[in-house]
């Protein structure tokens, strides 16, 4: 049996903290809203088949078992959608009860333990929506509303993508806690995803281990099935699996958290550049101070220039576990090169001293592509590039 407790992911906590800082009023308004019926009962009674306990005792027993494992004391109603759709199950969140809707021929393919896993997955969504007085439900509502608005900035859209995937990883853990067995949980996941009646969870876990998942999931609402199986196996081993949500630090597609991180990284790197020997001038300091948000006095950097050719250590957020260091994408490294070049050429009076100093900084920072980028932008001749390079000392 699994001896793991169900807790919100570090990503959940970090996004909640960020949303409360930047959208406190909207978040508070959505948090105060109850999950009302809004005609749901009438729609279900008209268009689905209600799966009552007398006729479907195994399903109701699985639901009770899952609810007990997750610490939920709530009435559960089950419905089957009409038509031959894809096998699926979903939670229709209501304040006073849990409503689980099945679609397609799923129920006939699941045994009692697999049913418990599926019910645990859906009921885990309710756990997340009700914990901390609905704090995470309010974030979910806010991000859903943002995703539906064409005016929404890309950072919110990427946050929404990662958020819903985080919710699925949380729900998968609920499935595992409910049934108590990894193989059963993966088997149920496979049956839902493939529609097959017979699957091999051990083979699927081997398949998952053949992938490099450090680049993150490419899913839009659910991580890939193999990634979900991998995440469950590694969660049991107390490994950090949230790399699936974040991947490398990418300046081209940041979420709200990465956008804040990139601002901090830019400000810190700009401060290092401005304090480098050969680049210390009022003009460079003024330009570097502009990378602060809001722009302000230039701080004195601590420690050595960060290395960008190796995974970057990320600070934990609001008590979350220390995240795994994250690699930088090529686009992010290129952005940092341009930042360095902009500051190196901000003060014409520095002349070659500024360029030579920037080459030194690039070497300390592990930005090996900086020389080529500066050459392309400034149009150095081979002779001039060789002269500048010779002037750089270790």
Automatic annotation (TrEMBL):
Highest taxon, organism lineage: Bacteria
Keyword Methyltransferase: no
Entry's cofactor comment: Binds 1 zinc ion per subunit.
Peptidase M48 domain mapped to chain residues: 56-235
Pfam families: Peptidase_M48
Gene3D superfamilies: Metalloproteases ('zincins'), catalytic domain
Keywords: Hydrolase, Metal-binding, Metalloprotease, Protease, Zinc
Cofactor(s) demanded: Zn(2+)
InterPro entries assigned to the protein according to its UniProt record, in alphabetical order: Peptidase_M48
UniProt GO molecular function: metallopeptidase activity
Protein family (similarity comment): Belongs to the peptidase M48 family.
Listed name of the protein: M48 family metalloprotease
Species per Swiss-Prot/TrEMBL record: Kribbella ginsengisoli
Source taxonomy: Bacteria, Bacillati, Actinomycetota, Actinomycetes, Propionibacteriales
């Amino acid at each position: 049996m699994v001896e793991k407790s169900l807790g919100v992911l570090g990503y959940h906590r970090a996004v909640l903290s960020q949303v409360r800082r930047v959208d406190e009023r909207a978040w508070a308004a959505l948090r105060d809203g109850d999950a009302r019926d809004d005609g749901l009962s009438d729609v279900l009674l008209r268009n689905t088949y209600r799966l009552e306990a007398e006729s479907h005792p195994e399903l109701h027993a699985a639901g009770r078992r899952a609810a007990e494992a997750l610490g939920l004391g709530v009435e559960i109603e089950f419905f089957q959608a009409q038509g031959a759709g894809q096998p699926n199950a979903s939670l229709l969140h209501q304040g006073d009860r849990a409503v689980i809707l099945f679609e397609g021929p799923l129920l006939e393919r699941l045994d009692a333990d697999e049913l418990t896993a599926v019910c645990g997955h859906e009921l885990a969504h309710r756990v997340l929506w009700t914990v901390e007085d609905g704090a995470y439900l309010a974030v979910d509502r806010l991000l859903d509303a943002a995703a539906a608005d064409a005016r929404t900035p890309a950072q919110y859209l990427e946050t929404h993508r990662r958020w819903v995937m985080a919710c699925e990883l949380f729900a998968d853990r609920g499935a595992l806690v409910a049934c108590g067995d990894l193989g059963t949980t993966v088997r149920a996941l496979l049956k839902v995803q493939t529609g097959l009646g017979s699957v091999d969870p051990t083979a699927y876990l081997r398949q998952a281990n053949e992938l490099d998942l450090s680049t993150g999931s490419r899913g839009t609402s659910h991580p890939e099935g193999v990634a979900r199986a991998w995440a469950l196996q590694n969660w049991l081993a107390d490994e950090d699996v949230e790399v699936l949500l974040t991947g490398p630090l990418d300046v081209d597609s940041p979420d709200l958290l990465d956008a804040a991180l990139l601002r901090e990284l830019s400000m810190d790197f700009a401060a290092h550049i401005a304090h480098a020997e050969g680049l210390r001038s009022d003009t460079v300091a003024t330009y570097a101070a502009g990378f602060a948000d809001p722009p302000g006095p230039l701080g004195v950097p601590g420690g050595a220039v960060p290395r960008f050719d190796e995974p970057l250590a990320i600070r934990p957020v609001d008590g979350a576990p220390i995240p795994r260091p994250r690699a930088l994408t090529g686009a992010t490294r290129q952005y940092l090169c341009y930042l360095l070049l902009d500051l190196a050429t901000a003060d014409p009076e520095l002349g070659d001293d500024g360029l030579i100093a920037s080459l030194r900084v690039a070497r300390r920072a592990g930005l090996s592509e900086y020389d080529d980028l500066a050459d392309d932008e400034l149009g150095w001749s081979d002779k001039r590039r060789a002269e500048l390079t010779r002037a750089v000392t270790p």
